[in-house]
Amino acid sequence: MTSSRTTSRGAGDLLRHWRQQRRRSQLDLALDAGVSARHLSFVETGRARPSSGLLLALAEQLEVPLRERNALLLAAGYAPAYSETALEGEQAAAVRESLAHLLAGHEPYPAVVFDRYGDVVLTNRAVGPLLEGADPALLGPPVNVYRLGLHPGGLAPRIRDRAGWTAHLVHRLTRLERLTGDRRLTRLLAEVRGYPGVVEALAARPPGNELLMTVQLASPDGELALHTTVTSFGDPHDVTLSELAVESFFPADERTRELLRSRAT
Questions:
Q1: In which domain, by residue range, is 149 found?
Q2: Which of 96, 187, 254, 256 lies 20 to 30 Å (CA to CA) from residue 181?
């Protein structure tokens, strides 16, 4: 039988991991969470069993993702605080309807919804033409935006500024992997960094903080110039929703706008 001391130590180890990942001192974190540094030290070493409220307050200060907050609570012997709704289930019908409405409203411009790992959940009809010529192996479910965007059999050969596009995607994946500590993301990051030309592109392009990425994509009808933005749900209380992102593409010039509109008709 697991003792409270053992569960507290497990939670304490996780808490220390997140604090060190965020480069916060015990004193700094304790002040922000409204507890003493001594008590926080006892929690991290397993000498004190934290309440679920304290763990959630500390996780909030450390910006721990919801999935990992549940893991922290479980390690301390508490029930998860956040639900994890299957997107295909009946409970998520309203969410699917809202997402479908959002994507349809963005047509004739492309938009896609993907999860934490970059696996595509939904797309609108305008996405299809962008995938022409991609290796069918990359289009089997689930389609992964990082593999599709960076693999030599995917979109990469059709991107005009390939170095910029590669750096944009890899830096985005790197930030997510560091934020979550998710080992599945670590493996995906290692995989895409092994694709031809990726390491060279990263060496040429340092990490950027661009809010609006512009991509030049060759297509059978001519070159497309597209702005791309990624948005997420604001203040979600469900693990699944918190990990969804919507990537929307907008025409960067009039020629692209007219081309996308003509394709839609």
A1: 90-264
A2: 96
